[in-house]
Design goal:
Layout (H helix, E strand, L loop, with lengths): L1 H16 L1 H20 L11 H10 L10 H5 L10 E5 L5 H13 L3 E3 L7 H10 L4 E8 L2 E9 L5 E10 L7 H4 L8 E5 L4 H11 L11 E8 L2 E8 L3 H6 L20 E4 L8 E4 L3 E11 L8 E5 L17 H8 L2
Helix pairs in contact: 2-3
């Protein structure tokens, strides 16, 4: 198993090293295609290679025309089997952190929780390779409050580092009858406002934590992005039009959403018929803030950093890295 993982890693790094050459060759072919389609002369720097490149262009199809990247290789086998997730914590976890991870086990299907003990990160990743886990989720805390979430995809990465905000667990809600039971069906996903390239990357990492659901499932997981803060919620499927309406923040003057409507893990009941909707919270609820993406697994300290938030980025309030806010769209559309 160890030799196999080393071989797969070397093959992955070799394919990644070829990306620059393949991208350069793709750009040359694209320039020749544009010149032929527009009836313009071939660029002078490509005339010596024109015959060979045109022969390659004739042999290409829709699948081979655009070069693949290492991002395609990371989730190439994601559709072959359901994700298998390992949940663990930092060392010496407090009781609130343990309770939060227990509830995350029900949020992510096919997840298994492991007590950290004295294990180091490299031992955890090696054990996950041996037992064919697809993802590792590590939760951190500060003074008993969960404040960090790391998602590492196996075997090649990526690893996403999120900050945790406004965490409320089911254990914190005193009225146990009001919150109801926790459904465990495979959910549908709603990924709202992941418009930029980094947003698509983040959505790709999050959506591969969940398996393909049945068409008639009544559970919906929503990751809704506003101002680069991703709110996590769960609904039932029936009042779908109302769910889309609820994606808009209630208080537009604040950075965080109103806790009674947005950061919740919900199901719906319709006691008065199909036109009446009653919102029922079942927890947990939290917000995520992405601050780093690495091209590798959690144990690889030498892995290349794909994106990281810098101190000067905190002052760029008008710029969003993951999505585009509706308020910004309205300002642009004003005459």
């Amino acid at each position: 198993m160890l030799r196999r993982n080393i071989r797969l890693r070397r093959e992955y790094l070799y394919r990644k090293s070829l990306e620059g050459k393949e991208r350069l060759l793709y750009e040359k072919k694209r320039k020749i295609k544009e010149a032929l389609d527009e009836g313009k002369p071939i660029p002078t720097e490509l005339r010596n290679e024109e015959a060979a490149l045109r022969q390659e262009i004739d042999l290409e199809d829709d699948y081979t025309a655009v070069p693949k990247t290492h991002i395609d290789d990371e989730y190439a086998n994601a559709t072959e089997r359901d994700p298998k997730i390992l949940l663990t914590t930092s060392r010496d976890p407090s009781a609130p952190l343990v309770q939060f991870v227990k509830e995350l086990k029900f949020v992510f299907p096919n997840a298994e929780r492991m007590n950290r003990g004295n294990q180091v990160i490299s031992e955890i990743i090696e054990s996950c390779h041996a037992h064919e886990f697809t993802d590792v989720i590590l939760v951190h805390e500060h003074r008993g409050i969960p404040d960090g979430l790391i998602i590492s995809h196996l075997p090649f990465g990526p690893t996403a580092y999120f900050g945790l905000l406004n965490v409320v667990t089911r254990h914190d809600i005193r009225d146990k009858k009001a919150i109801g039971t926790m459904p465990e069906a495979y959910p549908h996903l709603i990924l709202d406002n992941f418009k930029t390239k980094l947003g698509e990357r983040s959505a790709n990492i999050l959506k591969h934590l969940f398996p393909v659901p049945k068409p008639d499932t009544k559970r919906i997981v929503t990751f809704a992005n506003r101002s680069d803060y991703i709110s996590f919620r769960i609904y039932s499927k029936e009042p779908l039009n109302f769910i889309i309406h609820m994606l808009v923040p209630v208080n537009r003057s604040t950075k965080y959403w109103n806790g009674s409507t947005c950061q919740l893990h919900h199901i719906y009941e319709k006691p008065g018929g199909p036109k009446s909707v009653e919102l029922k919270e079942i927890g947990p609820r939290f917000e995520l803030r992405l601050y780093q993406v690495k091209l590798g697994t959690m144990d690889q300290s030498e892995a290349q950093i794909e994106w990281v938030i810098r101190p000067y980025m905190n002052t760029t309030k008008k710029r969003n890295f993951i999505g585009i806010d509706p308020d910004d769209k309205k300002k642009k559309n004003k005459p």
